[in-house]
Design brief:
With 157 residues, the protein is α/β, with parallel strands linked by helices. Helix content is 44%, strand content 18%. The protein is built from six helices and six strands.
């Protein structure tokens, strides 16, 4: 069992700004101090948008911090999670999964609650949540509220 203080996770919207340069820079500014504090494992839910940006950022930071690990925490099998995505999104997803240090699938099949179950699992396993929250509804809003209730440190971008 991994010590919670060594784990951070991500949550954010699927829709991102056209230009993600500033968001990506802020993401790095949030991740690097955590690495310097001893965080090694970064849990990622595998969704399009912010999750994909966060995963590729962790993979890039592995060049400077080779000891960190990207753990993909999928709500259901990859082919079910990505069923409605376009070809470019699926390609990026497969590339991330191929480069991840670990892929964990929480449910053998898609269910109505598998996405929220995945988000709760990541929060329950983490000391930190790095989030990109712009709307007061949806999965990220729920996850941030859940993280607040659980008392984990939230880093808002």
């Amino acid at each position: 069992m991994v010590e919670r203080s060594k784990v951070a996770c991500f949550s954010g919207h699927r829709k991102l700004p056209q230009d993600c340069t500033e968001l990506q820079a802020n993401l790095e500014k949030a991740i690097i101090p955590l690495i310097e504090r001893g965080v090694v494992f970064f849990g990622n839910g595998g969704a399009v948008g912010f999750d994909a940006l966060a995963a590729t950022t962790v993979l890039r930071l592995k060049e400077d911090y080779p000891h960190i690990r990207l753990v993909m925490v999928l709500p259901c099998p990859p082919e079910q999670q990505s069923l409605k995505w376009n070809a470019e999104q699926k390609k990026r997803y497969c590339e991330i999964l191929d480069r991840a240090d670990k892929v964990r699938i929480l449910s053998p099949g898609y269910t109505n609650s598998c996405m929220l179950d995945r988000n709760r699992h990541m929060v329950d396993s983490s000391a930190y949540l790095i989030c990109y929250l712009r709307e007061q509804r949806g999965g990220t809003f729920y996850t941030v509220n859940y993280a607040e209730q659980q008392g984990i440190k939230i880093l808002r971008l």
